[in-house]
Input
Amino acid sequence: MPITAAITAIEGYVPDYILTNHELAKMVDTSDEWITSRTGIKERRILKGKEMGASFMAIEAVKKLLKKSGTKPEEIDMLIVATVTGDYVFPATANIVSDKIGAVNAWSYDINAACSGFIYALTTASQFIQTGAHKKIVVIGVDKMSSIIDYEDRTTCIIFGDGAAAALLEPNTEGLGLRDFVCRADGSGRQHLYQKAGGSVKPPTYETIDLKEHYVYQEGPAVFKTAVKQMADVSVEMMQRNKLSADDIAWLVPHQANQRIIQAVAERMQLPESKVMMNIQRYGNTTAGTIPLCLWDYQGKLKKGDNLILSAFGGGFTWGAIYMKWAFNQ
Output
């Protein structure tokens, strides 16, 4: 059989500090009932500590991944970090992670596709496995969203959290692993979900700071409507292209943006709630971290050969889906 790229190990890391809805209600005009009914979120993790950025969480996840899989850092050929909250504008956070874990033989870079980042990164990495160019690739989804959230804006501060998860990708000749994908983008949607300042178009100034333009800006209704349609469309496309019925699918692994979006996508795919991975209630939206964190949380329930559909939508707009056959039993 042709070579496919399979996840052979998955590990995650979330910070210790838990920010609950009740605590948020003391900071902004909101309540546990209001947040839960609209998003499904009960709490989220926040990374505290001086000079602790996205790389800290990524490194912790990768250390656990290497230990679990018995992989030496120097065996890694390539390392990709999906993030919108890198440690610096440059260098890439992936470069920092590679250095601090001792991956001296890996080339590394970041992918910025917002909440679709892990889908984009996994798809990209799989190509290097399938061609035979590389044998071991680490793909990380990580975001420290608390670093770009205005905790006086109740429309965004209730949604996002911090977290990371890392996957080891290796060749497979049993037909397992990544079988199909679709990745899409529409830059015209950028005005609905973005960070207004901090880039080359609008570099930091006293004015941009005073106007709070270095925080996430989101127009909720527009994002919600487009996310439901696009996530559902690509997920159903994966099913149709691969002749999969709802009965054939073991799990939907959706981006954890909003419980109502997840439910709408599952309904479109005719999947029962029992086949939908969901941990948004504990972590909130960790952007590029949500899908790998789901795989980490649920790996004990996954069986070798299970059909999975991974699906995401994010700022950009970006979206995509992956059809994968799970490659190992926990």
About this structure: The mean pLDDT is 98. Residues 94 and 329 are 29 Å apart (CA to CA). The two ends are 24 Å apart (CA to CA).
